[in-house]
Amino acid sequence: MHIATKTQVVSSNDEQAQLWLTHLWQSEWGGDMMVSHGQVYRLSDLTPIIAKENDTLVGAATYRFDDADGCELMSINAISQGAGIGTLLLKAVEEEAEKHGCRRVWLITSNDNLDALRFYQRRGYRIATIYPGAVDEARRMKPMIPLLGHHGIEIHDEIELVKFFKGTSQRPRLETERLILRPYSKDDLDFFTSLWADREVVRYIGNGITKTPDEAKLRLEQIITGYDTGYGLLAAWHREKHLLVGHAGLVEQHVDGANEIELGYWLARDFWGYGLATEAAAALRDRAFHVLGLERIISIIQADNKASIAVAERVGMELERQTTFKNQSVCIYSMHHSNS
User: Fold this and answer.
1) What is the pLDDT of residues 128-155, one digit of tens each?
2) Which of 63, 108, 167, 247 is the most exposed place for a label (fewest CB within 10 A)?
3) How many domains would you assign to the chain?
């Protein structure tokens, strides 16, 4: 592929550039309104990166830093295809993300955009999550989104692609209507310790005994180290309240002589009763079946934990059996991909 050697990328956003961007966004996107994961964003509110060839504007990208540890590429457009402009713009966004301390760059495209899937995957991006029906929901907010897309494919689903910077693990990150599920960091220790210090929160966790701050710190370190397996508990960040409310995740377990993947979830007491656990569990269920390709998941729940049983049932799990796990009498709830 020929790279446009005379092309430069700049962050200038003067009046002339703004007028050009307004026209670009109108012609490419029908305006500056973008819908991502049910959230509305205005490209004009973001700092653009602009590609110039001599004095001619030939492309632009916009991005935003999310509430977790990533940078979302919101838009990218090149006037000339195959000239390397998109590659230069993407690289510029990645450089800005690294400067900001992000671990990854991620983006959303639609199920019909085969050219985008090819472009990004050739540049190191991987499919992280598929959100069935998300474009149908976005169309309610932005009716101009067409039903029929590239290659005659109907547009219904969002596909999230992600690229992790060198030296970082490909750790899962999920978004729901109200939550961001992202890996724990050492900065989350105070919250994690508070969860383990609440007797009601840990009542049905293992033997129901709280942990000291030192014990909680050790457990958090184990969780963070364990992300390299691709599994683990994820911190649940409330998008509107801008704070952590609990955690949920897919966790490797050994039950009755078999290796299993458990779907686990628990929240701080102030956030019980709002459907957040069900929201997180449903997203993790979809990741397990549609992204990781698992055939089966379970939840290990003590019989008196009616709230957790209700969540398991809401996401489609059924009681499989009762057994003993880590010296506790528990119920095994399970679900198979064919029933999802």
Assistant:
1) 888 899 889 888 888 888 889 888 999 9
2) 167
3) 2
